[in-house]
Every structure is written in C-alpha cells, then in structure tokens.
What we know:
Layout: H1 5-14, H2 19-68, H3 78-93, H4 96-102, H5 104-111, H6 117-141, H7 145-153, H8 158-169, H9 171-192, H10 199-209, H11 214-243
Helix pairs in contact: 2-3, 2-6, 2-9, 2-10, 2-11, 3-6, 5-6, 6-9, 7-8, 9-10, 9-11, 10-11
Amino acid sequence: MITTPVDTFVLASADGGTAWGALWAFFQEWPAMWPDLWLGTQDTLYMVWWATFFGVLFGLPLGVLLVVTDREGLVPAPVVRAVASAVVNIGRSLPFIVLMVAVLTLTRFLVGTTIGPTAAIVPLSIGAIPFFARLVETSLREVDREVIEAAHAMGTRKFTIVGKVMLPEALTGLIAGLMMTVVTLISYSAMAGAIGGGGLGDLAIREGYQRFNDHYLWATVILLVVIVQVLQSLGDLLVRRLSRH
Length: 245
C-alpha cells in the first residue's frame, strides 16, 4: 500500500502513537539519509549553477536584441525582432518535462549521455535562456526613455548606450529577474529527476516515491525549500541595497 506523509501521521495516531512520534522517527533517520541528501544537494546546485551561467550568457544578449531591434529601439529591425521573439515564445511555451525529452538527442550529442546532472544541464539551459531573455526585455523597457535619448543626443554610440546606460539603469530589475530564473531552475532541476537527471528530485522519486519512503520525500522538500529561501533572501537583500544607490 502506498502511504503519504498524512497517512503516516494518521497511522501513528491509530497505533497509539502521535504525530510527534512520526517526526521523531524522521529525525532519527536523518543521519542515515544525510549522505544521499548531501550528494543530491550538490548535484542540484551544480545543475542550477551551470544552467544559470548559460542562461545569462545567451539570455542577456537575446533580451537586449529584443529591445534594441524594436520599432522604437536603437536599431529598428522588425524582421529580426519577430524571429527572436518567436524563438523566445517557442522556448517558453514548452513544458519543461516535454523539453527534456525533446532534446535527448541533442543532450547525447553534446555530453555523450542522457542521464546524470551534467546531461540535465542541457535542457535546463535551453529552458533558462528564453525565460531570462523575457525578463531582461521587461527590465530594459522600464529604463527612462529620456535618459536614453539624452545619451543619444550627446553622440554616444549605440553599443555604448546599451552597455553604459541601459544595463546599469536596469540593474535592479536584472538582478530580480536573475533570482527569479534561479528559483525556476531549482524547480526544473527537481523535475529533471523524473528522467534520471540526478539531484534532489531524482532522490525524491527514486528513494521516496518508488520505494515508498516518506522520510526521503520530507527531507528533499525541506532542503529544496531551504535552498530557495536562502537564495531568494540573498537576492532580495542585493536588490534592496542596489535600490538605495
């Protein structure tokens, strides 16, 4: 019979135990689970780190391209923008679990395998690029138009306007968008466990769901929540400090 965490509490009470007894059993098993949990945490952070790196590396220029090639942009190019926007929309419209399966051939070509944390970086990066690009576009559009026009009127080159005016002015929004991307990638990395991507998601499915071990499910949920809270808090702190300047 498959049991859930709620069932565990109910059964414990029915047998004369308490919910505290179930929690005590969970904490007693924590030392035995910790080596697997620590390895899963490392794999999750490894996947998210590199996916974030590639997401920013390609998503930032793609987001800038969407803005500068707009009709009122620095270099109006409707056709280029339409193509770039279509690519971003397609990338964002695919559910991540579908995207992982769709790029299995590409993943095998790039890293030589379709399982493990390194293989999961490929679909994670592909999913992060259009997501972050849209956030970059939104942040850049919030830059005061008069600031851009003033820099243009002083004869500043268009490339310099992007690097010295638009990006610095949108820095707070870019940092907030980056943290949103990181949090999204953490949830994506958990889904990557469904096809052997490694990390906490793989641990939850393999040890928790398939072997009916609720303690692993609780532990992975706790660790994922802690990771998200810590990273989001650091991001919020950085945004607040940048907003004061």
